[in-house]
UniProtKB/TrEMBL annotation:
Family listed: Belongs to the glycosyl hydrolase 10 (cellulase F) family.
Keywords: Carbohydrate metabolism, Glycosidase, Hydrolase, Polysaccharide degradation, Signal
Keyword tRNA processing: no
Signal sequence region: 1-29
Domain called GH10: residue spans: 34-389
InterPro entries associated with the record: GH, GH10, GH10_AS, GH10_dom
Catalytic activity: Endohydrolysis of (1->4)-beta-D-xylosidic linkages in xylans
Active-site residues, as the UniProt record annotates them: E277 (nucleophile)
UniProt keyword Aminoacyl-tRNA synthetase, yes or no: no
Protein name: Beta-xylanase
A Pfam family: Glyco_hydro_10
Length: 397
């Protein structure tokens, strides 16, 4: 993407004009400073796209405050749940495109870069997709045909309307090998499964960017597994345009250095790098939640002491935590800005705190504060911290 000259402070701007134009000090004082951007998409307009995942209520205006926020702040959207298999094809032959159509139409009407999410995933996929009429697991060829048919109907419907697809989501495990799932068990060959997914996506959405998307990409073993998989696709002549690094991160971890290592490793493959599903969890993480699926939940305990430990700020995030969240986001966006030659998009996973999935995962019913806007769709200190990063960057052009 085109790179933007860094914004100058008022004093530096005035001095520069005086040098170039031979202005007197009085003329310097009269010079009008450049107004700094007040939106995310403006602040990063020459660096990368900035977006959010949205639902049908945002798209059709039922959630008017969120819709207004999206239109003001973002230039790309991702369908949060509306284009996942359980929503699109809940029962055999019964496609429901209305929610997805609403999200895509909203993005197109406002000139946004629209991302479809996701074609191949082991979660939020109806169980019937993996068995025959007698309830027996499909063999490899039958399962691949189910995949082809699904991608033809869904990616084909939105060809020319969706600019990017998360073709495969979370197929690599913590150990760097293919994740155990009904897809893998039925097909029996992870390479074949992924190859066919990208082959079908390229066939039915030929002008759409095709991505692989995963969480925990800072894990060295998972990172190595993703790199191996992408190289396999490239060696087979299959198109993969980018890798999405899900940014479901914590207030302290992973480190900036770990995230940077993965950005560099993926960029070295010659594909775009995207930060997807970005949110910062400020709440305690129960150890028993490790390894849980995204559609599983723990419950808040009845014991008031344990409840307070897991949900410490139900009435609002204290000032010191607001400051920590702002510093964390500032550090992340300083990295993203520095790596803007590799990064094409940064997408938050929802619009404001009240709509975030992190209120329910891994513990249902907590009050979390993971995004840049509060429950009233108002900017938090973290928003101002992110907005300021491009102007603070050292000149490098």
């Amino acid at each position: 993407m085109n790179r933007r000259l860094p914004l100058l402070s008022h004093a530096v701007l005035a001095a520069t004009l005086a040098t170039v134009l031979g202005c007197t000090p009085a003329a310097q004082t009269a010079a009008q400073p450049t107004t700094p951007p007040t939106t995310l998409k403006a602040a990063y307009r020459d660096d990368f796209l900035v977006g959010a995942a949205i639902n049908q209520a945002v798209a059709d205006g039922r959630d008017a405050s969120s819709q207004a926020l999206v239109l003001r702040q973002f230039d790309t959207i991702t369908a949060e749940n509306e284009l996942k298999p359980e929503r699109v094809l809940p029962r055999p032959g019964e496609y429901d495109f209305a929610p997805g159509d609403a999200v895509v139409a909203f993005g197109r009407a406002h000139g946004m870069f629209v991302v479809g999410h996701t074609l191949l995933w082991h979660v939020q996929t109806p169980p019937w997709l993996f068995v025959d009429g007698q309830g027996r697991a499909h063999g490899a060829d039958a399962q691949i045909e189910r995949l082809r048919d699904y991608i033809e109907h869904v990616a084909g419907r939105y060809a020319g309307k969706v600019q990017g697809w998360d073709v495969a989501n979370e197929v690599i495990g913590d150990d760097g090998n293919y994740r155990d799932s009904p897809w893998l068990r039925n097909v029996g060959d992870g390479d074949r499964l992924v190859r066919e997914a990208f082959r079908f996506a390229a066939r039915y959405a030929p002008d759409t960017e095709l991505y692989y998307n995963d969480y925990g990409t800072e894990n060295p073993l998972r990172r190595e597994g993703i790199v191996r998989m992408v190289k396999m696709l490239q060696a087979d002549g299959l198109r993969i345009d980018g890798i999405g690094m899900q940014g479901h991160w914590g207030i302290d971890s992973p480190s900036i250095a770990e995230i940077e290592q993965s950005i560099d490793a993926f960029a070295a493959l010659g594909v775009k790098v995207m930060i997807t599903e970005l949110d910062i969890d400020v709440l305690p993480h129960p150890p028993v939640a490790d390894g849980m699926r995204a559609d599983e939940h723990l419950q808040l305990p009845d014991d008031p002491v344990q409840r307070q430990r897991l949900d410490p700020w139900p009435q609002g995030l204290p000032a010191d935590m607001q400051d920590r969240l702002a510093r964390r986001y500032a550090d992340l966006f300083a990295l993203f800005h520095r790596k803007r030659a590799a990064i094409s998009r940064v997408t938050f996973w929802n619009v404001h705190d009240g709509a975030s999935w992190k209120n329910d995962f891994p513990v249902r019913g907590r009050t979390n504060y993971p995004l840049l806007f509060d429950r009233n769709a108002q900017p938090k200190p973290a928003f101002e911290a992110v907005l300021a990063i491009p102007a603070q960057a050292a000149p490098d052009r």
